[in-house]
Design a protein that fits this description.
This protein is α+β, with helices and mostly antiparallel strands. It is about 55% helix and about 20% strand. The strands form 3 sheets. Strands 2-1-5-4-3 form a 5-stranded antiparallel beta sheet, sandwiched between helices. Helix 4 (about 160-235) crosses helix 7 (about 295-310), helix 7 crosses helix 8 (about 330-345) and helix 8 runs antiparallel to helix 10 (about 405-415). The longest helix is centred in the middle third of the chain and has 74 residues, at about 160-235. Bound molecules: adenosine-5'-diphosphate and magnesium ion. Adenosine-5'-diphosphate binds near residues 344, 378, 391, 394 and 402. Adenosine-5'-diphosphate binds next to helix 8 and helix 10.
Length: about 450
């Protein structure tokens, strides 16, 4: 193209050419603007991504170190400064070894080399240097790979072991506290059963004792009459006088009553003796000795004691076999039946005409005892949990939730089972099954 001189008219481009040039410039300009906008958008995304990564990295409570293949620190994050007690940022290109003593450096270097070689993470315990001396950290070492899967270095994530150890200690402490609380509850349940037993026994003893007492009282009265009569005889009273006195003192009837009073006192004393005998058998528990005994008799005694110890007026009915012989520890079985009857009585609080039925049978080498009540029954959900320790639907202070679980355990120790045989709106039935003993 020849250069234009100022005095030559602008003839070189016609109008069309100018229009093309302008259009081309417009296009280029708008492409540039597009490009600029795309760049800006990408920049914004990058910025957001960087902020996001930064916030994630700094919110990690562990110490985070990224090192390259030469073990030079590329980046740190998480609680890096806080854990290592650093007040200023690291110099660029600080080697990892600067954070460790010589021994820890050797250990960590070895682990990192292995992790980079087989591209598998490792966990190692190493001490990092801090102003307060070496702090042990549990460090996980994960290899860092590029897009083609080549090893680029590793990422180290460290957690102070002191914290872990503290957490473990706290866990231990609360575990011990829990165990103590459980032991206390078990103790409480034992005391509660003992309380029920004592209440029942006290009630049971009260009857024959007052019987003995009333009869001794009568005997005393009779004795006074005879003394009066003998005094008159001694004083040499005349026969008609003595006959009159004998009538007045009702001595003929008194002689007859005397026998009755003596028998009554003897009966009462014998009843007391029987109760003491029952108690002795119950406390023979610890021996773990197994004997042959009648489940019906044992269940009756147990139920009587519970009923006598409660204020709820409840009827006890006994059906089925008159005797069912089992082998086991009668004291244990008595304790189980007392628990079952107590539960039944608790459940019967709002039932009109409350009734607890005991029925026994011998069946396929087992002595089976059922304790049934006509209470409100147990819901399906509760039924799955009643044998769990500490499951109770009773208010605090009333139930410990241990009765059934302990009873079940005792049944098992005696080679038997304790189950909920059935339950419904008409009541519940618990079944205790024990190895049968041949009757003597
Ligand atoms: N005969 C029964 N009728 C209704 N519910 C019962 C009966 N026996 C046991 N339960 C339920 O089983 C729960 C657990 O019983 P238990 O282990 O003896 O503990 P606790 O009597 O201390 O609550 C009771 O709280 C009650 O909800
Ligand atoms: Mg109970």
């Amino acid at each position: 193209m020849t250069a234009l001189t100022p005095d030559e008219p602008l003839q070189a481009f016609d109008d069309q050419t100018w229009r093309d040039v302008v259009a081309a410039m417009d296009r280029t300009y708008s492409e540039l603007v597009d490009y600029q906008e795309r760049l800006e958008a990408q920049n914004r995304e990058l910025d957001e991504m960087r902020q996001f990564m930064g916030s994630v990295l700094s919110s990690i409570s562990e110490l985070l170190i990224v090192v390259d293949r030469t073990l030079t620190i590329e980046r740190t994050g998480g609680a890096f400064s806080a854990i290592l007690g650093l007040e200023t940022a690291l110099e660029p290109d600080t080697p990892l070894g600067a954070l460790l003593d010589a021994k820890a450096d050797t250990v960590l270097r070895g682990v990192i080399t292995e992790a980079m070689r087989d591209r598998r993470p490792r966990v190692v315990e190493v001490g990092f240097l801090t102003p307060d001396g070496p702090t042990p950290l549990e460090v996980s070492v994960s290899p860092r790979l590029d897009q083609r899967g080549r090893s680029q270095g590793v990422v180290l994530v460290g957690r102070p072991l002191g914290e872990l150890r503290n957490a473990y200690r706290e866990l231990e402490a609360s575990h011990t506290a829990l165990q103590n609380a459980q032991a206390q509850l078990v103790q409480h349940e034992k005391l509660a059963s003992l309380g029920r037993l004592v209440a029942g026994v006290a009630h049971e003893l009260n009857n024959p004792i007052s019987f003995v007492y009333a009869n001794t009282h009568a005997l005393e009265k009779y004795t006074r009459r005879f003394e009066t009569y003998f005094d008159a005889v001694q004083a040499g009273k005349s026969r008609p006088e003595l006959v009159a006195l004998r009538d007045e003192l009702k001595l003929d009837r008194t002689v007859k009553n005397l026998r009755g009073a003596i028998d009554g006192a003897k009966d009462g004393a014998e009843r007391v003796r029987d109760i003491v005998e029952d108690l002795r058998r119950l406390s023979a528990d610890g021996s773990g000795e197994k004997v042959r005994f009648d489940v019906v008799q044992t269940a009756r005694t147990a139920a009587d004691w519970v009923v006598r110890g409660t204020k709820t007026p409840v009827r006890i009915a006994v059906y089925g076999a008159e005797q069912a012989c089992a082998i086991g520890n009668p004291g244990h079985v008595q304790q189980i039946v007392m628990n079952l009857v107590q539960n039944a009585i608790d459940a019967l609080a709002d039932t009109t005409d409350p009734l607890v039925t005991l029925s026994a049978k011998e069946h396929e080498g087992k002595a089976v005892l059922q304790v049934t009540d006509n209470g409100p029954g147990i819901s399906n959900t509760d039924a799955t949990a009643i044998f769990d320790p500490f499951f109770t639907t009773k208010p605090v202070g009333k139930g410990t939730g241990l009765g059934l679980s302990i009873s079940q355990k005792i049944a098992q120790e005696n080679g038997g089972t304790l189950t909920l045989a059935r339950t419904g709106p008409d009541g519940s039935c618990f079944e205790l099954s024990l190895p049968a003993g041949d009757p003597e």
